[in-house]
């Protein structure tokens, strides 16, 4: 079986590696050069994109910002999963908000802005503490601005005045005092089978994910059921096929959808070592019409996992592999500020044991590039 992935980054690479074990051949489209490449070596492969589409049993994406002309070509083949409409929802916050409203799924109060003169009305309607997001091309904290008090509004309007907001509107959200950030990763297959992973608890720094822990601490059946109900309503409402990531804010007992990602997701990388079937394998299974694999934690209900992102550095020590249950995944990229260079998965039999392993891991990593790890490891180590 054969899959063509649009995008040639680390997510396509990890799909290739999991697909190889199943005898699934995965190739990638470098959307910057419009060429077909090997997902690991990045070597250019013979043939055009059109020929690769004919070759493939299924087409999919590793990120949502694929040029629309390529998406249209893929959609016309009838093989693109998830479909173009779902991919575009992940690429455009306005479409995303419209979907959430149509499906009556709770999310942050918001307004759409196409002119900076509308911002004072946003303050009037939503309050003076706002998160302003570009509706397209924003990720990892880019394309976002904050308003902390009304006095800052004139300066913010001036800062945004040069943007073409008719072309790329802003989504202005009320800044909420949420308790924590969660995500639910799951998959829906061609035949409608749905499988979800345990809720993950996510720790961000400067707009980027640094640490995920799964299952999330202090979870309960009611919280998990609410998250799963949201996921099911989304995938059925979109007739979605593949892995979908739903990022959530927890406010007390309420869950609000923050963002959707129509693909395998950073907060699901822990599944490589911690789950019976990784998100990458399940995505391939879903788009090819195969039965989905089990999503529970290896080691049973008490087992826990963490994923630690390696961002903007390559100064980790390979001696960290001496820690039992620690797995390194390196992407083979050149170092760049805020660039995701790789990640570390850690598995343990309890939160306390996980915290102790993360404390040991901290000894091999600089606090400059891993600022969240010391406090998070201490928090987990204290859970009884």
TrEMBL record:
Pfam families (alphabetical): ATP-grasp (PF02222), PurK_C (PF17769), RS_preATP-grasp-like (PF22660)
Enzyme category, top tier: ligase
The organism's place on the tree of life at top rank: Bacteria
Reactions mediated catalytically: 5-amino-1-(5-phospho-beta-D-ribosyl)imidazole + hydrogencarbonate + ATP = 5-carboxyamino-1-(5-phospho-D-ribosyl)imidazole + ADP + phosphate + 2 H(+)
Pathway: Purine metabolism; IMP biosynthesis via de novo pathway; 5-amino-1-(5-phospho-D-ribosyl)imidazole-4-carboxylate from 5-amino-1-(5-phospho-D-ribosyl)imidazole (N5-CAIR route): step 1/2
EC number: 6.3.4.18
Role played: Catalyzes the ATP-dependent conversion of 5-aminoimidazole ribonucleotide (AIR) and HCO(3)(-) to N5-carboxyaminoimidazole ribonucleotide (N5-CAIR). Catalyzes the ATP-dependent conversion of 5-aminoimidazole ribonucleotide (AIR) and HCO(3)- to N5-carboxyaminoimidazole ribonucleotide (N5-CAIR).
Name of protein: N5-carboxyaminoimidazole ribonucleotide synthase
Gene: purK
